[in-house]
Amino acid sequence: MNKLLLVSPLLLLPLALTAHAAPPGSQSVREVAVVDLSSDTRAHAELVHEIVEAIDDSVGYAVKDIDSVLNAGGEVEARNNIKTAQAFYRAGGAALEAGDPDEASLQFESAARLMETAYALLPEPEQYDKALLQLGAARLANGDAAGAAQAFERAALHRADASGVKLSAEAKAAWEAAQAKVNARPLGAVEVITEPEYAEVYVDGRYRGISPTTVAGLREGQHLVTVEKLGYERLTAQVTISSRGLVRSELNLPAARKKLVLDQLEADLARELDALGSGNTKGGDAVRQVGSLLFSEVGVIVRVTGPEEAKEVDMVMFDTASQRLLNRVTVPIDWSFRNREAVRQAVAQLLEFDYAAALGAVAGPGPSAGGGGSVLGKWWFWTAVVGVVGAGTVAAIALSDDERPPPFANNGTGAVVLNF
Fold first, then answer.
1. Angle at CA 201, nearest 5°, toward 228 and 338?
2. 0.70 exceeded by pTM
């Protein structure tokens, strides 16, 4: 039996904006802003890092770079350096293809130098490694064997992956020789200390723990240490590792430009989380601000409490446009032996839900987080709704079990009839 639904465009617009899914064959990715309300301890920082990684690794979700938003205006030079470096990298590739290794060397060297200055903000640290590998190849093609070896050794120190870089047979041999030479160097370590403490520490683009921490097993030579903590600027320091003694790297992180805004947002979110329950399934202005201030359609609020052997991890997921609670998972985790698998299972549970149903639509059979099997979860439904709302009409929608995309017809009265 067909069912007729008369819906005002003003009512459909919020759902259209938040529940719209991509057509079949494409992958819709929702950006997630993760806000941590936990007290500032090493264990909590470790746990939240694992939560962020698990969300970012999940199909259909990508973690929003909140640091760039909080530091808006303070990272302009670094971001401009990255864009310029990427342009140099492309120019170097073009010069190498055109048979001009001298010009290619200049371009790749400029790209690598600029990437070093903005390493903390590189979207993919592998870009720097590729610039070094291409620099080595260009120098070798230009007859500079010593300069090529130097570039290749720098790349080897960063444990670069050359599988995605086109190298000649001669360049491959030089790269392998550089790897063997670097791997024969003695090992050293760096002690990373930050103010404030409990910042995430990365060495050569790889996560190595929470500060203060000592990172061992590094080959002698120059490495890049990056530290980041929500609400503070991201910093990178060059350190020269030696086997003769422990190297110490102390970094003072300036507050982000919008740290006071973040502090107030966290306090407001804590009050709104405490008010959930007893039939209340919506956040308030603070949840909405996660979307408007952090430019994210989904917010995950994390709060970790309890002793190390019995942590309680509370994760609350909101649609920021409607402030509606999407899902909430509260689980105990024994963090005394760093149970990362338990964290990933909890995140999988958090993300396992029907997005359209969570927004109040009619739930139906079908995959979770993809809109469900009801008509309200179909991509063509929301495409039609957006068009209808844009025209300022009232949609008359006849629902049935027929899954085929419907013909659309205007009946001449200002309403659109969707026949199923």
1. 115
2. yes
